[in-house]
């Protein structure tokens, strides 16, 4: 099939790019690669069997293809004999985004997968149910973002078979009598989506208004409490705070301060007054850039119940020069989990104003934290990461003001680096050695899973890490690299499982040297030479990675890689600084 684009003359592509001469039902279940104007059926519906096609399902052509693939084989002719024209008025092209399409056709798409799930069942049922819930969740998240409770209610009422489990996957525990009634729905959502924002201040009269305006302007379907701890300011901060409280007494709580408590005790007292399931901070001289900050960070924690904290990318503001600069070190990381060793290596979280927590995780922080004169956001977040998981959201959502006379930000860089090294020694005494506070080495044991990988399926090699070889690691990341060449020459995918979570790693690194060595000849195309892989994982204690190889929907176990570490000996460190 030749695909042409009406709005891009001269641009063409061939579809499908690759196809087996005789695709299977499983292939078609996984992906609709059959265009309607390219197909000829041996029609199954004649005689007693009636053709029943529900109007409320989409895409309908995929359904018809599957019904015929169920009772016979699929043939593929590798010749272009039809043209598919993509244009603005087409059924799928009329939607600017996938979300826009789901808003129009979402219930029909869910009904499509529901019908296939009921028809095929068996090993296909789980995949079809996952597809149903994926569409449901995209729509539900959009309605939460838009505070569109009636639309969310209609979605729930239209899909009672998946609504409860899909909502649970979103971190929402639905009541026993789940209903799409807007009033009832809003009630139980608000009860679960509660957040307390702690604002600490001391002589911040010039800045606290900007801070509170940004906090109070947050949008989203949640109930917010703002707990303000003005630590006995002498510059008029208390009067400004009182004006805000008088205007918004339902949301603002001001903690009494007969005397100055100091930063940590001020924060601890504010935390004791928090009632939300989630807690955020905004120090009075900082402010938030986005009115969606809470909603975005809350979604991140909702969607992963194992996460206890997340922090966003910070914009650094230097009032002395008027400049704004994104935090450089944070900018090196993608959105995702940050391991304990990465956080131990440096104070990556930058400050409290970008952090968002589960309330119960903060309650686990020991009293010793508040008694430690060196304590700040770094140590707090190490306590959180030690017992749970933390993650980074790579979006600039908050501003950290670098004051010339700030307790930390006002220090020269050489003094900061010296203090970081001093703190790391202290923190190693709290959390233990080999956690990333000092240079350490990682080694691994590599073992085959279920015997040797059969050459009739694929040939593969793990080049890094090497079995039983120690290598220094400082950034908390381990690198896995190698290559896979399938026997059929079809595209391979690496499947990596860590702690029950599965990642699909593309095998797309250009490695003509491997093709030449394995096949005895240089590759003829760039695509043919893409047989390498390389990816990183955050190192953690007791890290085990299970690797499998997938080719044409067949998955074969390959290797187990178990990592361990040791602190680099001082003598070795002196020889190899």
Nearest-integer average pLDDT = 89
Number of helices: 18
**Terminus-to-terminus distance:** 60 Å
Described by its quaternary structure, the protein is single chain
Query: What structural class do helix, strand and pairing data support?
Result: alpha+beta
- Total number of beta strands: 23
Computed CA radius of gyration, to the nearest angstrom: 28 Å
Helix content: 25-40%
**Percent range for β-strand residues:** 25-35%
What overall geometry do the principal axes of the alpha carbons give? globular
Low-confidence stretches: 570-577
Report on the biggest sheet: 10 strands, mixed
Provide an overview of this structure:
With 577 residues, this protein is an alpha+beta fold. Helix content is 33%, strand content 25%. The protein is built from 18 helices and 23 strands. Strands 4, 5, 6, 7, 8, 9, 10, 11, 12 and 13 form a ten-stranded mixed beta sheet that branches. A six-stranded antiparallel beta sheet has the order 16-14-23-22-18-19, with no helix packed on it. Strands 15-17-21-20 form a four-stranded antiparallel beta sheet, with helices on one face. The longest helix is centred in the first third of the chain and has 24 residues, at 122-145. The N and C termini lie far apart (60 Å). The relative contact order is 0.07. Residues 570-577 have low confidence and may be disordered.
């Amino acid at each position: 099939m030749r695909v042409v684009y009406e709005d891009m003359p001269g641009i063409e592509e061939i579809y499908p790019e690759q196809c087996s001469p005789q695709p299977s039902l499983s292939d078609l279940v996984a992906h609709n690669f059959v265009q309607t104007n390219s197909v000829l059926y041996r029609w199954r519906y004649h005689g007693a069997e009636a053709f029943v096609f529900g109007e409320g399902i989409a895409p309908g052509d995929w359904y018809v293809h599957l019904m015929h693939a169920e009772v016979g084989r699929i043939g593929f002719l590798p010749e272009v004999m039809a043209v598919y024209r993509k244009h603005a008025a087409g059924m799928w092209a009329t939607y600017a985004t996938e979300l826009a399409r789901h808003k129009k056709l979402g219930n029909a798409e869910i009904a499509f997968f529901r019908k296939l799930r009921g028809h095929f069942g068996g090993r296909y049922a789980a995949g079809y149910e996952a597809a149903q819930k994926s569409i449901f969740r995209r729509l539900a998240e959009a309605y939460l973002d838009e505070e569109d409770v009636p639309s969310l209610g209609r979605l729930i009422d239209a899909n009672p078979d998946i609504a409860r489990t899909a909502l649970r996957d979103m971190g929402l525990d639905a009541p026993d009598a789940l209903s799409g009634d807007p009033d009832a729905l809003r009630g139980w959502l608000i009860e679960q989506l509660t957040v307390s924002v702690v604002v600490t201040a001391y002589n911040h009269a010039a800045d606290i208004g900007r801070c509170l305006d940004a906090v109070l302007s947050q949008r989203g379907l949640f109930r917010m409490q703002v707990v303000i701890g003005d630590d006995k300011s002498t510059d008029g901060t208390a009067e400004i705070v009182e004006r805000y409280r008088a205007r918004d007494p339902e949301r603002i709580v001001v903690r009494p301060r007969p005397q100055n408590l100091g930063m940590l005790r001020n924060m601890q007292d504010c935390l004791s007054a928090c009632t939300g399931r989630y807690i955020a901070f905004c120090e009075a001289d900082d402010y938030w850039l986005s009115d969606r900050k809470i909603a975005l960070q809350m979604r991140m924690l909702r969607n992963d119940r194992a996460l206890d904290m997340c922090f966003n990318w910070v914009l650094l503001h230097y009032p002395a020069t008027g400049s704004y600069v994104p935090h450089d070190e944070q900018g090196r990381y993608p959105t995702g989990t940050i391991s304990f060793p990465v956080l131990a290596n440096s104070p990556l979280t930058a400050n409290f104003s970008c952090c968002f927590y589960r309330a119960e995780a903060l309650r686990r922080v020991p009293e010793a934290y508040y008694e430690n004169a060196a304590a700040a956001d770094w140590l707090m977040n190490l306590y959180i990461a030690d017992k749970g998981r933390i993650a980074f959201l790579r979006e600039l959502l908050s501003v950290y003001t670098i004051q010339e006379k700030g307790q930390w930000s006002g220090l020269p860089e050489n003094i900061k680096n010296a203090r970081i090294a001093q703190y790391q020694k202290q923190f190693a005494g709290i959390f233990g050695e080999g956690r990333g506070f000092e240079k350490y080495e990682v080694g691994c044991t590599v073992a085959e899973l279920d015997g040797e990988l059969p050459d009739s399926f694929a040939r593969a090699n793990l080049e890094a890490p090497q079995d039983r070889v120690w290598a220094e690691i400082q950034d908390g990341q381990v690198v896995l690299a190698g290559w896979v060449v399938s026997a059929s020459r079809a595209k391979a995918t690496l499947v990596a499982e860590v702690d029950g979570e599965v990642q699909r790693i593309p095998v797309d690194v250009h490695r003509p040297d491997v093709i030449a060595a394995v096949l005895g000849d240089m590759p003829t195309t760039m695509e043919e030479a893409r047989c390498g892989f390389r990816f990183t994982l955050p190192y953690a204690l007791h890290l085990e990675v299970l690797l499998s190889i997938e080719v044409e929907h067949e998955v074969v176990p390959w290797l187990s890689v178990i990592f361990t570490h040791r602190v680099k000996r001082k003598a070795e460190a002196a020889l190899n600084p």
